[in-house]
Amino acid sequence: MLFTSMFGLAASGAAAQGAFPTRPIRITVPFAAGSATDIMMRHLSQHMQEALGQAIVIENRAGGAGVTGSEPVVRAPPDGYALLMAAVSSHAIAPALRANMPYDVLRDFTPIGLACTSTNFIVVHPSVPVHSLQELVAYSKELPGGMSYGSGGVGGSNHLAGELLRLRTGANLVHVPYGNQAQAVNDVLAGHVPMLIYTVAVLPHVQAGRMRALAVTSERRQLQAPDVPTAIEQGAAGVVANSWFAFFGPAHLPDVVRDKLYGAMRDALNDPGVAQKLVDTGLTPAPMGPEEFSVFLQAELAKWTDVGRAANVRL
Predict the structure, then answer these.
(1) Considering only CA atoms, which of 89, 108, 98 is closest in space to residue 244?
(2) Could you tell me if 217 and 119 are in contact, meaning their C-beta atoms sit under 8 angstroms apart?
(3) By the 8 A CB rule, do 83 and 211 touch?
(4) Distance spanning both ends of the chain, measured CA to CA
(5) Domains plus CATH for the chain?
(6) What torsion do the CA atoms of 302, 303, 309, 313 make, to the nearest 10 degrees?
(7) Are the C-beta atoms of residues 289 and 146 closer than 8 Å to each other?
(8) I need a labelling partner for 55 at 20 to 30 A (CA). Which of 80, 81, 106, 263 fits?
(9) Does the pTM exceed 0.85?
(10) Does residue 163 carry a pLDDT above 70?
(11) How far apart are CA 186 and CA 191, in angstroms?
């Protein structure tokens, strides 16, 4: 009798998971409305809710580089109705650099899949007498005070890209952190700071000749700037520093629910119309399934922990 009851409960649970979803899904974006993560999720959500047959409600909870909004998802029931679209800052950089975190990325979340990436551009003011990454490294070593570069602040992907470049090539780079990234851009445009590491947002300045792009810190050249070589192509082995955006659920999310959610996201990313909208905003669709993404995530945590320790960067 007990066996029959247990079997009935198990079958009922399996049926419920198989029918998922039966009500709206809430996805937390732990960044402000209008951020890259938010824009990406809104492009994906319409296609995904059509595939899943339920409404997707996006909730913005900004703060702490994504950590503040991510933490409540840890306590949500693992049923697929409370999810998270996170980023490298909240799920790789902060855990690697912060002494105290309210969650353990590998223990407290179920990785559903990678959605998109964006990368950093290494650019200089046109007055700087270098036209390649190799020339930049050599030139920085000739400067007694080193080559200053601006970024969006300590511990950001722009800053860490510079630290990674310094560690891998021996470049004599000096970090100039800005709380306001727009001011960093303006200072490089004015020639006050010779170098900047920033996102695809610098491309209009590059195309207008106000900045010179030397490299991107991605594995492959970017769709938005196919003429700009990667750092790896120019001999800077291991200099890969991308921003990335990925889908998570609470720990112990059932595989059948996880896989259905990933399938809906993957299909949205593969839709030509959605993909073009993402590219137009500076993102690169990069769907990666749960198992492969789990391996990728562990590698990212290890990489930024090593860089933070070697460069003595703590948040």
Answers:
(1) 89
(2) yes
(3) no
(4) 57
(5) 24-116+244-311 (3.40.190.150), 121-234 (3.40.190.10)
(6) -120
(7) no
(8) 106
(9) yes
(10) yes
(11) 9
